[in-house]
Design brief:
The protein is of the alpha+beta class. Helix content is 45%, strand content 21%. The chain contains 14 helices and 11 strands. Strands 6, 7, 8, 9 and 10 form a 5-stranded antiparallel beta sheet that branches. The chain has a 4-stranded antiparallel beta sheet with strand order 1-2-4-3, covered by helices on one side. Strand 7 and strand 8 form a beta hairpin.
Length: 478
């Protein structure tokens, strides 16, 4: 087999491949076997019909079509391997010549990884925010823990905002009961707005055993959109009582003997969470610095595919919540044109990031061990609430193992870059990689801490935005 490689652009090449007929014997054998299994010829068992008989029956051109369809993918794979072509995506193949008994030639145009001039890793400089823990930060942390130990106590007075009530509800439309329009013993915080419109206003001033009728538009069910008369009856009124913030509370809610120790521990834990935030920021700033420093040619087809894939995933996630993309954009005050422009900009950033990290991984000859892959599978399985075995099976069935291995390799390249870079906070203090890689600790007494960002790369509504470069995972080999 002969092959020449023509560079069309920094990100695209054309391969011209010539395959002599004497190298097509395996493909001829496979073609005869496949066709022979489908053609019935008297005197021959299925799959045992000689090639010359098959050619007489269905014609030589039909055989050649089968041979070419079988041979070209293999020849293409051999060509990119022998010529070390680092392909991105699928090729556009055109058969240019079939000379029976002599040669088959074809061309393949395909996007490729560009050659990049990478800066030395130890020349990279990154600045991250200072870690600052305010009294308000500590107060929020301790208050969240305090809420966990609150108690509800019955009170003999009319309900007020902030009280907790047990209520019965019964809805009618035009005097007729609404299907599934009644409930008993519902717990509700007055003023929270968590149930139906008008309820909180109706509850204020009601005592235990009292009822009130109010009107509301039903949000769901067979009578959705219609105005209903709703009778609310209060069964009990309770107030929330919070424990005093003292040594007794510290002993109740934590392993500490004094409240001062509890506050000091809260400060330490917040600092740990913010140090992890520094690590995320360092990674982001490092990637941004690389993109600014390196001219990264982007394959247009790869970027377009990335945009389409991201939009599909965003649309799908919205549809699962019953919201259309247009409705979501209207609620966000964003035009479709701006959304698509933002989506493309972040797709370009994602593709550039992958190309850069792949280039460093190649330069440093990084590989992915079985241990690396297993660790990532375990981590991702925990995130999605499945067993590692189930997650690995899903990856295998969906053909996503290569993409996961690519992600692991890029993460190793990023870690190597962070190790080599000079990282300081805004005050000029060195920031250690060990601090950035530490796991976020839980809150005092096992409570939860909030780093201010959802772990799944989505906004608080659970929907990835167009401005989120990591909202949807991407892989250049897709």
């Amino acid at each position: 087999m002969k092959c020449t490689v023509e560079t069309l652009s920094p990100t695209r090449v054309r391969l011209a491949v010539e395959v002599p007929f004497d190298e097509l014997k395996p493909s001829f054998d496979a073609a005869y076997k496949r066709i022979g299994a489908q053609v019935k010829v008297p005197g021959f068992r299925p799959g045992k019909v000689p090639g010359r008989i098959l050619e007489q029956r269905i014609g030589r051109p039909a055989i050649l079509d089968e041979v070419v369809n079988d041979a070209i993918p293999k020849a293409y794979d051999d060509a990119i391997r022998d010529n070390a072509v680092r392909v991105l995506g699928r090729p556009e193949i055109e058969v240019t010549k079939i000379e029976d008994g002599d040669v088959v030639t074809f061309t393949a145009e395909v996007d490729v990884r560009p050659d990049l001039e990478l800066p030395q890793m130890d020349t990279l400089v990154v600045t991250v925010d200072d870690i600052s823990v305010s009294d308000e930060d500590i107060h929020e942390q301790v208050s969240a823990l305090r809420e966990r130990f609150a108690t509800l106590t019955g009170i003999d007075r009319p309900a007020e905002n902030g009280d907790y009530v047990s209520i019965d509800l019964e809805a009618t439309v035009d005097g007729e009961p609404v299907e599934d329009g009644s409930a008993t013993g519902l717990s509700h915080e007055v003023g929270s707005g968590q149930l139906i419109d008008g309820l909180d206003e109706a509850l204020v001033g009601l005592s235990t055993g009292e009822s009130r009728t109010f009107q509301t538009e039903l949000p769901a069910g067979p009578a959705a959109g219609r105005t209903a008369d709703v009778v609310v009856t209060v069964r009990s009124v309770k107030v929330k009582e919070l424990p005093e913030l003292d040594d007794e509370f510290a002993q109740l809610a934590s392993e500490f003997d004094t409240f001062d120790e509890l506050r000091a521990d809260a400060r330490t834990r917040i600092e740990r969470v913010k140090s992890v935030g520094q690590g995320v920021q360092a990674s982001d700033h490092l990637v941004e610095a690389l993109i600014a420093a390196v001219d990264v040619p982007l394959p247009d087809a790869v970027v377009t595919g990335e945009v389409d894939w991201r939009q599909h995933n965003i649309t799908h996630q919205l549809e699962e919540t019953g919201v259309t993309l247009s409705a979501y954009l209207e609620a966000e005050g964003q035009s479709e044109e701006d959304f698509k422009a933002e989506l493309r900009a972040n797709a370009e950033k994602a593709v550039a990031t992958q190309l850069l990290l792949d280039a460093y991984a190649d330069q440093e000859q990084l590989g992915v061990s079985e241990e690396d892959l297993t660790q990532q599978i375990v981590t991702q399985a925990r995130r999605y609430g499945v067993t590692p075995e189930q997650f690995a099976q899903q990856l295998s069935q969906n053909g996503q193992l290569p993409a996961l291995m690519s992600d692991v390799r890029r993460n190793k390249a990023l870690a190597l870059l962070l190790d080599a870079a000079t990282i300081t906070d805004e005050s000029g203090r060195p920031v250690t990689i060990a601090a950035m890689r530490s796991e976020p600790a839980g809150s005092p007494a096992g409570g939860s801490e909030d780093t201010g960002a959802d772990s799944d790369g989505t906004d608080p509504a659970g929907v990835p935005g167009a401005d989120d470069a990591s909202a949807v995972p991407t892989d250049l080999g897709r």
